[in-house]
């Protein structure tokens, strides 16, 4: 069985070498492995690092590296029976990471799996709390919900060819696909033992943009979900209070108070901005269609 590891890079990707080094130590027998580093050609160091580890470089210049369309292009370029997705800021935690991640796919328990994400010494305090909430220590194989994350995931090629990622989404293409798979009675697995360390250090603007993009995508995937100013106030205040309480109990509040306030503001204000963008788009479409002062042609 052939495995394609697809690594999406973002900017200069300073930890790409660490990711590829960790992949070189994976204990996996009876499998042919190819590594495909996906970039936009903006950084020569990415190609140089990839070549040092024998990885193949695939450049996507015509679209964002986030989102469904870029992943579909990368999957089409890959040749493996199993497609493994890894972000360039996610370093496998052990030599058994890959085996654990693909086990549910190999034994037929699931067609789509994703692993645990752990914070690192580079992570902000609230980011670590956030990861602990969404990526618990216990596996769920198969799982009941549609949450999934392509920063550390594996998918059967046959499932991708049948369903594919949503080209229209610039975020949460993983959750959209997991939702569709569950609706078609396929299985998704969460494998806590297949853990990675996140070493990215997003600034406030990057976090804000990310959460706004995800909120916009979430309303497209699940139209019944809305995020209002009241929701912003509620979730921001409750998460800040909880983080402050935990940091105080851990005797690290003094060093992390600003990070807590900043990260949670980016998270929930970004969610509100994404909702507002979706609502404005919906209102424009509604006005365009129902406005009695305009003539419409139904095609």
Characterise the protein shown here:
By secondary structure, the chain is an alpha/beta fold. The chain folds into 2 domains: 2-198, Spore Coat Polysaccharide Biosynthesis Protein SpsA, Chain A; 204-290. 48% of the residues lie in helices and 17% in strands. It is built from 10 helices and 8 strands. The protein has helices at residues 16-24, 44-52, 68-77, 97-106, 125-134, 157-163, 173-183, 204-221, 229-249, 253-290, and strands spanning 2-8, 32-39, 56-59, 82-87, 90-92, 112-118, 152-156, 188-198. Strands 3-2-1-4-7-6-8-5 form an 8-stranded mixed sheet, with helices on both faces. Helix 2 (44-52) links the parallel strand 2 and strand 3. Helix 8 packs across helix 10 (253-290) and helix 9 (229-249) packs antiparallel against helix 10. The protein is globular, with a radius of gyration of 20 Å. It starts with a strand and ends in a 9-residue tail after the last helix. Keywords: Glycosyltransferase, Magnesium, Transferase. This is Glycosyltransferase 2-like domain-containing protein. Residues 4-163 form the Glycosyltransferase 2-like domain. Its cofactor is Mg(2+). It holds the Pfam family Glycos_transf_2.
Strand content: 15-25%
Mean pLDDT: 89
Counting DSSP H or I runs of 4 or more residues, the number of helices is 10
In CATH terms, the superfamily of the largest domain is Spore Coat Polysaccharide Biosynthesis Protein SpsA, Chain A
- CATH architectural designation of the largest domain: Alpha-Beta Complex
Structural class: alpha/beta
Q: Approximately how much helix is present in the residues? A: 40-55%
The succession of helices and strands, N to C, reads EHEHEHEEHEHEHHEHHH
Poorly predicted segments: none
Instruction: Give a short account of the largest sheet.
Output: 8 strands, mixed
Tally of DSSP β-strands: 8
How are the strands of the biggest sheet laid out side by side? Answer: 3-2-1-4-7-6-8-5
């Amino acid at each position: 069985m052939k495995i394609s590891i697809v690594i999406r890079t973002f900017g200069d990707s300073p930890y790409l070498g660490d990711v590829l080094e960790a992949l070189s130590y994976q204990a996996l027998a009876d499998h042919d492995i190819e590594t495909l580093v996906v970039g936009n050609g903006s950084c020569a160091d990415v190609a140089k690092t990839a070549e040092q580890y024998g990885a193949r470089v695939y450049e996507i210049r015509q679209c964002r590296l986030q989102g469904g369309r870029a992943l579909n292009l990368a999957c089409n370029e890959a040749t493996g029976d199993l497609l493994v997705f890894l972000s360039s800021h996610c370093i496998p935690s052990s030599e058994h990471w890959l085996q654990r991640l693909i086990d549910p796919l190999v034994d037929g328990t699931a067609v789509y799996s994703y692993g645990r994400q752990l914070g690192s010494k580079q992570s902000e305090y609230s980011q670590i709390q956030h990861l602990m909430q969404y990526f618990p220590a216990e596996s769920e194989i198969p799982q009941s919900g549609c949450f999934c994350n392509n920063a550390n995931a594996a998918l059967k090629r046959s499932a991708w060819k049948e369903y594919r990622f949503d080209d229209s989404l610039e975020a949460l293409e993983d959750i959209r696909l997991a939702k569709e798979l569950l609706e078609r009675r396929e299985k998704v697995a969460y494998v806590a033992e297949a853990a990675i360390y996140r070493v990215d250090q997003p600034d406030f603007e990057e976090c804000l943009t990310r959460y706004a993009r995800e909120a916009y995508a979430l309303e497209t995937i699940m139209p019944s979900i809305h995020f209002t100013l009241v929701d912003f106030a509620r979730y921001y205040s409750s998460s800040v209070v909880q983080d402050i309480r935990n940091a105080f109990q851990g005797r690290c509040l003094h060093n992390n108070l600003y990070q807590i306030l900043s990260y949670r503001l980016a998270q929930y204000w970004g969610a509100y901005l994404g909702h507002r963008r979706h609502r404005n788009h919906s209102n424009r479409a509604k006005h365009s269609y129902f406005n009695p002062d305009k003539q419409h042609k139904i095609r």
